[in-house]
Specification:
14 helices; Four Helix Bundle (Hemerythrin (Met), subunit A); alpha/beta; single chain
Length: 457
């Protein structure tokens, strides 16, 4: 039984889906006004891990990730660059999807955009107004009345005595800000052409109502898991929970999961501290996408990830060790068994215990060490090698840090083929220069009786 830490109850709970064998999963996606930074991808990688574990344990997962393409930030960016809103949001949506693919994040089943679901948002707001959970201000904005909802603050243990009754129109909140929040914002001059008709006049939705409307459209009024970063917990998820339960008369979500922050050398990432990175910055620094995946997944999702450029070598060394054991096992047998070694039971127990990746990695690397010893002592059978191949494949289905053993990038394959031609012609200097070139690109060659083996380093 998988156990997950539920932010709603502040404890680990056995995961019991609403429908046996099926999981409705909603993950807060990017606000597409800029490139997603590595702190954002810490959350997206945690969500990918969760999804991979659920799939590994034979759940059918319906995964929805929203795209926030209208809010204060996207409108400001469009205004600053004097461009149409969708020109800005399409650019950064595509960049996000490209980065996600490079990081081997499994695609969601649905990527709903906020601007495509305004009608659903208006409908939900109308229900809240009719039930007196929301009120209309003089300028035609609509606010959720927090004092009407006695359970407000459940995600963060917020006392009703701390609640203020001050209208909040901005999408930007301080973490301790508690206000009646905007469900609908009347049109202002700086919104430009960004506006939709509503029963309350022209305007646009508030940020929080977007996720409530889109998640329930695709997953139903009551679904299993809602994820995000710890920074989403309050007020965004708190407000989602309030408006959804009040409009739908359901619990809305059974399990709320939140990942901790990513810091850079112990400090909060910020442009002012010159420690702000997007994914392409890491590539320029010599990281592979797999290096970054490993660093993020080596920490428990509820612990802070302390990132540093210096951790590149640590990640490369760990991945190299896994690649080397894979090559050694494939050298004994290139077949994959239908059975796994017994150690997989401990590995799985770690994953089922609230996605305990540090423990799972420790178990896996101990197996790597013992397997290397057995190979060195010629104390491993062909069947054990086949089972080992299966374990490496299974491990990689969760962590996704190894390339396919049989597929080389076109550029690398071309260089290897050229080197073979030079070797046949005994042009050793040219052959050696290609070996050095491959090393600089992160690939190691080993000439064996059965041919040249190429491994990523």
């Amino acid at each position: 039984m998988i156990k997950l830490y539920n932010s709603l109850t502040q404890k680990k709970e056995e995961f019991v889906p609403i429908q046996k064998g099926k999981v409705g999963l909603y993950t807060c996606g990017p606000t597409v006004y800029d490139f997603s930074h590595i702190g954002n991808f810490r959350t997206f990688l945690f969500e990918d891990l969760l999804k991979r574990v659920l799939l590994a344990f034979d759940y059918k997962v319906h995964h929805v990730m929203n795209i926030t393409d209208v809010d204060d930030k996207t409108i400001k960016k469009a205004n600053d660059e004097k461009k149409e809103l969708n020109e800005i949001t399409n650019k950064y949506t595509n960049a996000f999807l490209d980065d996600s693919k490079s990081l081997r994040i499994l695609e969601a089943d649905d990527y709903p955009k906020a601007t495509d679901h305004i009608a659903e948002m208006i409908q939900m707001i109308e229900v809240l107004v009719s039930k007196k959970f929301a009120y209309i201000s003089k300028d035609g904005s609509v606010f959720f009345k927090i004092s009407k909802y006695s359970d407000y603050g459940r995600l963060v243990n917020l006392s009703n005595s701390t609640i203020l009754n001050e209208q909040q129109l901005s999408d930007e909140y301080d973490l301790d800000s508690v206000n009646d929040f905007a469900l609908w914002k009347s049109h202002k001059n700086n919104d430009g052409k960004v506006a939709w008709d509503s029963p309350w006049g022209k305007g646009r939705p508030g940020w929080h109502i977007e996720c409530s409307a889109m998640s329930t459209k695709f997953l139903g009024a009551h679904f299993d898991i809602h994820c995000g970063g710890v920074d989403n917990k309050f007020p965004h998820h708190e407000n989602e929970l309030a408006q959804s339960t009040c409009s739908l008369n359901t619990p809305f979500v059974n399990y709320w999961l939140h990942s901790e922050f990513l810091t850079v050398e112990g400090k909060k990432m910020s442009k002012s501290l010159n420690n702000f990175y997007i994914i392409s910055d890491l590539v320029k620094e010599g990281f592979t996408y797999e290096d970054f995946r490993f660093i993020v997944l080596s920490a428990h999702y509820r612990s802070k990830v302390n990132f540093s450029i210096k951790r590149k070598d640590e990640a490369k060394s760990a991945i190299r060790r896994i690649e080397e054991i894979r090559q050694r096992l494939l050298g004994i047998s290139n077949e994959v068994s239908n059975t796994l070694p017994d150690v997989v039971n401990d590995f799985n127990e770690s994953l089922m215990d609230d996605l305990d990746t540090p423990k799972a990695l420790a178990i896996f690397f101990n197996w790597v060490r013992l397997t290397n010893q057995n190979i060195d002592q010629k104390n491993i059978s062909e069947n054990e090698a086949k089972a080992g191949n299966a374990f490496v494949e299974y491990f990689n289905s969760i962590f996704a840090i190894l390339d396919s053993p049989n597929v080389l990038p076109d550029e690398i394959k071309s260089l290897v083929d050229s080197r073979e031609d030079y070797r046949k012609n005994k042009e050793w200097k040219k052959s050696d220069s290609i070996r050095e070139k491959l090393l600089s690109l992160g690939w190691k060659l080993k000439d064996t009786k059965s041919g040249t083996k190429v491994t990523k380093i």
